[in-house]
Amino acid sequence: MKGLLKRNKKTFIFMTSLLLFLIGAGVIQEIVKNLKPFEDVPVVSVETKDENKNQGSEILKKPVNDDVKVSKGFYDTSLDDKKLEESLVYFEGVYRPNDGIDYTKDNESFDVYASASGTVIRKENDSLLGWIVTIEHQKGIQTIYQSLDDIKVEKGDQVKQGDVIGKAGNNVYQSTLKKHLHFIVSIDDKTVNPDKYFNQKIEKIKTTS
After folding, report:
1. Which of 30, 62, 113, 122 is deepest in the core (most CB within 10 A)?
2. Contact in structure between 116 and 143 (CB atoms under 8 Å)
3. Rounded average pLDDT over 44-69
4. Of 175, 180, 186, which Cα lies nearest the Cα of 116?
5. Contact 183, 194 (CB under 8 A)
């Protein structure tokens, strides 16, 4: 018997190893069968809030109601001589080009609205220009509201298009207009004629400037 085992020792070791291998393979196959596929594992997505993501679909609107009139327009060199003269601002013996649009309503106060959604990046009381609010809509695009009164917003506020940001007030620089709003559109720190950008999509303003 010992001689038989000795002669078949290699065969016995091989058969034993094969049996253990088959048993191990069966166990692994059963484990794999019970595992959930990777794609079945739920994935939790994290949405980043973007305050400015919807601004591109907005159009730039006038900051006042239709019953408020333009008293002085933007100094645009494409205008005729008469309109250019009307868009000059006289202050302390000097005529200066008007860098925005001035709105009045027979010396009555009126609501001033955000022309588009954005972030209030400035609220300041200037000795000549009066209360100023600046709203940034997209990088490089800002609307500026001067000669305000009864301001409803603070620096850092997120405002929506049409929100009341204040009322028309008085300032020293254009005191002859009495209660008025001085409205500026700025693109990359350059003032532009607001009339050319009203009713244009915010996202396209920079490409058309």
Report:
1. 113
2. yes
3. 70
4. 186
5. yes
CA dihedral (91, 96, 97, 99) in degrees, to 10, reads -60
- Number of C-beta neighbours around residue 84 at 10 A: 16
Burial (0-12, 13-18, 19+ Cβ within 10 Å), 68: buried
pLDDT at 15: 58
Q: What is the mean pLDDT of residues 132-153?
A: 96
Q: Over 70: is that where the pLDDT of 41 sits?
A: no
Distance CA 144, CA 132 (A): 7
- Residue found under tokens 């929100």: 163
Half-sphere exposure of residue 7: CA atoms within 13 angstroms, side-chain side: 4
Contact (Cβ atoms closer than 8 angstroms) between residue 123 and residue 166: no
Q: What's at 195, amino acid-wise?
A: D
Residue with structure tokens 């005191």? 175
Tokens of 185: 């559109």
pLDDT for residue 206: 73
Cβ neighbour number for residue 60 with a 10 Å cutoff: 22
- Please provide residue 141's backbone torsions phi and psi, each rounded to the nearest 5 degrees: -115, 120
Nearest to 145 by CA among 127, 133, 157, 160: 133
Q: CA-CA distances (angstroms) from residue 146 to 41, 77, 103, 164?
A: 56, 23, 11, 14
pTM: 0.73
What DSSP state is assigned to residue 198? T
